[in-house]
Design a protein that fits this description.
- The chain is of the alpha/beta class.
- The chain has helices at residues 17-27, 50-54, 66-77, 118-121, 134-148, 153-172, 190-203, and strands at 5-10, 33-37, 82-88, 93-101, 106-110, 126-130, 181-183.
- A five-stranded parallel sheet has the order 2-5-1-6-7, with helices on both faces. Strands 3-4 form a two-stranded antiparallel sheet.
- The longest helix has 20 residues, at 153-172.
- The protein is globular, with a radius of gyration of 17 Å.
């Protein structure tokens, strides 16, 4: 396989990262892209009690298994398949199943703090920050967490004010300065995403 292109996509929770990733995948030839979500690499908490698990701040860098993620990105870059962990938000722990990820010409690493870790950042050919107003991100979090994660609106708002907002300001927002490209208005920025896709099509080796 020719050189693998590694793209990092960061941005606050609910900023539209998934939409941007989807558009890149659609713009490239079929089966050309492997997406590696940072969310799959939360630490294994099997040794903890339920109480300890639920006390974890999942919006802090320490919640992630950076070592395993870097090892897997390295392996994919070298043409080796990896067994990506799967994570349950309901159990706050990894599941026994893993997902086999095959090496592809383009590897997208996507997650809130994708640009935080220098070792990981240094492996990237392109670094993107998806930006979005905080009120819009809060609305998206409410919509997602009440439907997918069984939380009430007041639980989501409390969590946003106590955890998400301060963690975003401390750890996520500052990584914007490492980005080669910032996409404002998140997933709704059709022109910005289109320009990004054209650029990626240009840097990816043709088969």
């Amino acid at each position: 396989m020719d050189k693998t292109t590694i793209i990092g996509i960061a941005g606050g929770t609910g900023s539209g990262k998934t939409t941007v990733v989807k558009k890149i995948v659609e713009a490239l030839p079929p089966h050309h892209v492997a997406v590696v979500p940072l969310d799959s690499y939360y630490n294994d908490t099997s040794h903890m009690t339920d109480e300890e698990r639920h006390a974890i701040n999942f919006d802090h860098p320490d919640a992630f298994d950076w070592k395993l993620l870097i090892k897997h990105i390295n392996a994919l870059r070298n043409g080796e398949a990896v067994n990506q962990p799967t994570y349950s938000y309901l159990l706050c722990n990894r599941l026994p199943e893993t997902i086999r990820v095959e090496p592809k010409p383009v590897i997208i690493v996507e997650g809130i703090m994708t640009l935080l870790n220098k070792k990981l950042r240094d492996m990237m050919d392109l670094k993107i920050f998806v930006d979005c107003d905080s009120d819009e991100r809060l609305i998206r979090n409410i919509q997602r967490d009440t439907i997918d994660r069984g939380r009430t609106v007041s639980m989501v708002v409390d969590r946003y004010l106590e955890v998400l907002k301060p963690m975003h300001e401390q750890f996520i927002e500052p990584t914007k300065r490492y980005a080669d490209l910032i996409i404002p208005q998140g997933g709704e920025n059709i022109k910005g995403i289109s320009i990004l896709c054209k650029y990626i099509e240009g840097i990816v080796p043709k088969e």
